[in-house]
What we know:
It is found in: Secreted. Residues 1-31 form the signal peptide. Helices cover 8% and strands 35% of the residues. The protein has helices spanning 2-7, 15-25, 179-186, 348-357, 405-410, 541-545, and strands at 33-45, 52-57, 66-69, 73-80, 89-92, 118-124, 129-135, 146-152, 165-174, 199-202, 231-234, 239-246, 252-257, 262-267, 270-277, 279-282, 287-293, 302-309, 320-326, 374-385, 388-393, 396-398, 443-445, 449-451, 456-462, 475-479, 484-491, 510-511, 513-516, 520-527, 532-538, 549-554.
Amino acid sequence: MVQLLQRNSCNCILLGFCLLFCLVKFPAVDAKIRHYKWEVKYEYKSPDCFKKLVITINGRTPGPTILAQQGDTVVVELKNSLLTENVAIHWHGIRQIGSPWSDGTEGVTQCPIVPGDTFKYEFVVDRPGTYLYHAHYGMQREAGLYGSIRVALPEGKSEPFFYDYDRSIILNDWYHRSTYEQAVGLSSTPFVWVGEPQSLLIQGKGRFDCATPSLEPGVCNATSPECSPYAVTVVPGKTYRLRISSLTALSALSFQIEGHNMTVVEADGHYVEPFVVKNLFIYSGETYSVIIKANQDPSRNYWMTTNVVSRNATASAPPGLAFLNYYPNHPRRSPPTVPPAGPAWNDVKARLNQSLAIKAHRDFIHTPPQLPDRVMVFLNTQNQIDGKRRWSVNNVSYNLPHTPYLIALKQNLTDAFDQTPPPEGYDFVNYDIYKVQNNTNATSSDGIYRLQFNTTVDIILQNANTMTANNSETHPWHLHGHDFWVLGYGEGKFDMLNDPKKYNLVNPIMKNTVPVHTMGWTALRFRADNPGVWAFHCHIESHFYMGMGVVFAEGIDKVGNLPSSIMGCGETKGVAHRP
């Protein structure tokens, strides 16, 4: 084993990590290499009948679905044909054990891919489940650059639930203004908010009202096949696994299927103790698997709908509509009923109750460490910094550096970013989360949190009032490079003395994305056991763009030699890089 490790340059200090790395780096003999060649470019598309420039992969949005088995190596050769725009793609939910440079987070793990260049991402999918990929440069995700990753169990192994067929559905919201226009508004003085999306998409299809006044002639075509309702065809009597995921730029959503209950069985790649819902609340960056049975009247089709929650319904986009198509009915045959209404947009209790209902499957419990080594409390605030509207954590708004952290830390480039870490808490005693605060001490920084390798870290996400009176927004937080245990949710202000006593340490679900509900808190725990540099941020595009995120570094001395292909920007300018 020692010779094998030396021969393959497994630069590890701890033998346990070496073994884990090599299991991922050199998978079982029956594992396969899944090779994809993608070209990213702008094309005119009409996903909601309104024609606009969209970022496509091989001409498609959503992009191709990556299909693999546990232990496979995925290789994606990505050519940037955007002509005037950089790009990077994040593999959402893939932990990148042994390949932190393939996480795809511009400014954190790599320099962006410049126009005309081809970049190779290579990583092992070490766990079965439902995952995503999407752009992680600027606000490109909401321009159409996203898709699904489905990782199956190896042959001969089975899951703790039965189904006949497997389908993937990505939910999204859709803006007609370009990401550039939105970004300029967010960075301007006076501040210009992006507003509510124009449409909701189900698997890349939606419907904007082409009769809207003041539209330019020819820009909206209600008969375009690109915006015909998406249809999932089912055979009567069969059972289906629907992998439902959300990559919204702004909206929290509810998803429902007319006349059909859904049994939740998976969340972010982990098996759930099954529970039944009529509607599924889902937040940007989350993935779920639900089981449905095609056991209704087969002579007709049924509505699948999605609607905005947690934001005022009167200002939000109209519901997204799709069909559950019972074979042999025509997939474009409209159901004979009115689409079912979703839940009330402001019913916080219902959303909180669903979050609390998600527990680990009884046969797949990963027991968390009973105590943390370090506790951080992240107050989610909105601030005015140097005349600009920003989102912040503990009154510090995050800025991406010009030199990616992974390179700067590995090569000891201490001038590449602020060496002072951000605060790990706030004024718990005096801060009133229910009031608009001046936060005159707010600032911005590109400093990071350095975590001792293999320690246990608790994060308390504390929500608060925004700069608008009586307003608090739902924030879905996503952690790169790890899964975490969700220990609890609560309303109001987190009580450092009493709330930890209520943590679920018996069967907490593990996830990579979790909401912090309005005027509430969420507690999570993870092990800092994956060498690299990892972003942790709000998954709402505009919020992260405005500074709502942090970065963790751990085990940098255990990271292998960095590929030159991730270099070429900031203090690594002039470093020769190869695809």
